[in-house]
Design brief:
With 174 residues, the protein is α/β, with parallel strands linked by helices. It has a single domain (20-173), classed as Response regulator (Rossmann fold, 3-Layer(aba) Sandwich). The protein contains 7 helices and 4 strands, in the order αβαβααβααβα. The protein has a 4-stranded parallel sheet with strand order 2-1-3-4, with helices on both faces. The longest helix is centred in the last third of the chain and has 23 residues, at 151-173.
């Protein structure tokens, strides 16, 4: 007789985390676009009950706003759509982030260039993607920075992120 024991995963959290897909969203200051991507993607993860399979975080290519919450305007627009931006700004840490994350996703081409300049090797570079590469709509080639714009810019960011996060989720589930 064969007995199969089911061992709860919480007994081995480090092994469980290794089996999860880890995604890092990156913009310049980590106060508008990347924390919004994190919130949108977390909502999709939760809605699809994938919390034990996928996790995400966000960071910036610069430390301009390190330790600060997301921009209050971005939080307001996201809240209207049911997203809660809770992350605190931090810069990308190449020594940690390239080892931890499977996907490191820049919001625009400059973010991607900056990430590639931080990459230590080809393996790191293979993890770097442009957010709009995951868009189903395909209408935009980057997620524009809404910081110096008005309401329409914040709404557009959320529109693009909802599309791209949906495409990313499909890709991770394949």
């Amino acid at each position: 007789m064969v007995v199969i024991l089911e061992i709860p995963l919480f007994l081995f959290p480090e092994q469980f985390e290794k089996n999860m897909k880890q995604v890092l969203f990156v913009c310049l200051g980590n106060i508008c676009r990347s924390p919004s991507a994190e919130a949108v993607f977390n909502a999709m993860i939760e809605r699809n009950k994938l919390e034990h399979e996928i996790s995400c975080d966000s960071a910036g290519t610069a430390a301009y706003h390190e330790g600060e919450p997301a921009d209050y305007r971005m939080r307001q627009f996201a809240q209207k759509r049911g997203y809660n931006l809770t992350s605190i700004s931090r810069p990308v840490n190449p020594k940690v982030d390239f080892d931890r994350f499977d996907y490191i996703i820049g919001m625009d081409r400059q973010n991607v260039r900056d990430l590639k300049s931080m990459a230590r090797n080809e393996n790191d570079r293979e993890k770097i993607f442009l957010m709009t590469d995951f868009c189903v709509d395909g209408q935009y080639d980057s997620v524009p920075d809404p910081y110096y714009g008005g309401a329409a810019g914040f709404e557009l960011v959320l529109d693009i992120l909802e599309d791209a996060c949906s495409g990313l989720l499909r890709r991770l589930q394949e």
